[in-house]
Design a protein that fits this description.
about 250 residues; alpha/beta; Spore Coat Polysaccharide Biosynthesis Protein SpsA, Chain A; 4-stranded mixed β-sheet; 3-stranded mixed β-sheet; 8 helices; about 20% strand; globular
């Protein structure tokens, strides 16, 4: 009897900012538990090149192209009938558990499509305003931002792929509309897909910081270092991953 696998879907510039961490992650567990799919913009990484999907789309920050790229990842993952659980990650993610532990936690915690509230109220309000400019000709009755890294099941994946042509035509394609923080949540609501608002998979630091010119900025803060105490804190808070790690992040766990 074949077992259900977890599909890791990575929308990335190359592969991972910390290839060493993710190589250890995937090599250190049961290879029958997962599949990895990478939508790579540059395709320059020799370490994970075997996981690059063939069909890619040019992407821009905040544009609807991010949804189209995610759909290509989902399509590739659906080709393997054993893929039942789907988890979205990025090049700046770090895993907080081993592969086997991560798979077990996903299967136990995310039995249904699960979205998480956005960490930044400021960003949510901004998203509401911009999204209203980015949707045309369809009465989405509520606008909100959710964390773009969510988990879902195979039946949800099939619906997202089957309805992309139906719903994508209502979205403005050539401007920043934060589509990745809205689209899938909105479609799930419109189609009455069984989903819940639950525990986010990914920790991000959305605290305010002051720029040299005195202005305040609120974007996810990159880690200068990542320590074992941080690992335990984020685990205790229920996260599976943390972002944003860079190639210069000092990792000591």
């Amino acid at each position: 009897m074949s077992q259900h696998k977890v599909a890791f879907l990575n929308l990335s510039l190359d592969s991972f900012n910390r290839e060493d961490v993710w190589r250890q992650f995937f090599n250190g567990g049961d290879k029958e538990l997962f599949n990895l799919y990478i939508h790579s913009k540059n395709k320059k990484c020799p370490v994970f090149k075997d996981y690059f999907i063939q069909n890619t789309v040019p992407t821009k920050w905040g544009h609807f192209s991010l949804i189209e790229a995610t759909i290509e990842l989902i399509k590739a993952a659906l080709e393997d009938k054993q893929n039942e659980y789907f988890t979205l990650i990025s090049d700046s993610h770090l895993p907080l558990y081993s592969l086997n532990e991560t798979v077990e936690l996903i299967k136990r915690r995310y039995s249904v499509l699960t979205f998480a509230k956005h960490f930044s109220f400021h960003t949510k309000v901004k998203s509401q305003r911009v999204l209203k400019e980015g949707v045309r000709g369809y009465n989405f009755d509520k606008y909100n931002a959710v964390c773009q890294f969510f988990t879902f099941r195979r039946s949800d994946a099939e619906i997202f792929v089957d309805t992309i042509d139906q719903f994508s035509k209502y979205f403005v394609k050539d401007k920043v509309i934060f589509a990745d923080e809205f689209y899938f949540w909105a479609i799930a609501r419109e189609l009455n897909i069984d989903f819940k608002m639950g525990q986010a998979t990914t920790y991000s630091d959305w605290s305010f910081r002051e720029l040299p010119n005195g202005r305040l900025e609120r974007n996810p803060r990159a880690f200068s270092s990542f320590t074992r105490p941080m690992l335990y804190i984020y685990r205790k808070e229920g996260f599976l991953y943390a972002r944003k790690a860079t190639s210069d992040t000092i990792i000591t766990f």
